[in-house]
Design brief:
By secondary structure, the protein is α+β, with helices and mostly antiparallel strands. Strands 1, 2, 3, 4 and 5 form a five-stranded antiparallel β-sheet that branches. Helix 2 packs antiparallel against helix 3. The radius of gyration is 18 Å and the shape is elongated.
């Protein structure tokens, strides 16, 4: 079973984040960031790729993408694959069930992530728990520190939050 759609979706937003970091969108001099209106998403759609920063401060707002528990996700994948192989469900039913159960795992992970955030200087601005996306703002060093949390899969530009 493949979650190709999820990978494409993640790669689309990860590429935007990579472009932002390579372009030097977070400056060290504390100036407000500008957005290059000519930049486009992988599908050619104009997009904002900079990390939103506040003038004169060391804060940022980003989208944090969490991942479902890998062991639980593999267990679900194995169970559903076995059910497809023994003929109790078809491929379409398997994909629907996998996506539903993956969203449930992300919702479970969201509670853990919210708890983690409550112990940091960061602020949760918005959340799409069933997609594993959280709009987070706070000190830049705390934002980058999220990458050491095994739950956080990627930091994506804040402008992409609405597209998730």
């Amino acid at each position: 079973m493949s979650d190709e759609h999820d990978r494409r979706h993640f790669l689309k937003f990860a590429a935007s984040g990579t472009a932002a970091s390579l372009a030097g969108c977070v400056s060290s001099d504390g100036d407000e960031e500008s957005i290059d209106p000519t930049e486009t998403d992988l599908d050619g759609t104009p997009t904002e790729t900079s990390v939103q920063t506040t003038a004169g401060s060391d804060t940022a707002t980003v989208t944090a993408a969490i991942r479902p528990d890998p062991a639980k996700l593999q267990s679900i994948r194995t169970e559903i694959t076995e059910r497809v192989q023994n003929g109790s469900i078809n491929q379409t039913q398997a994909q629907t069930e996998f996506q539903r159960r993956r969203a449930e795992l992300l919702t479970e992970g969201a509670e853990s992530f919210r708890s983690y955030l409550s112990e940091t200087p960061m602020t949760l601005e918005d959340a799409k728990a069933d997609s594993g996306a959280f709009l987070v703002s706070g000190p830049s060093n705390a934002i980058v520190g999220m990458l050491t949390d095994n739950q956080v899969e990627a930091l994506i530009p804040a402008a992409n939050f609405e597209n998730i």
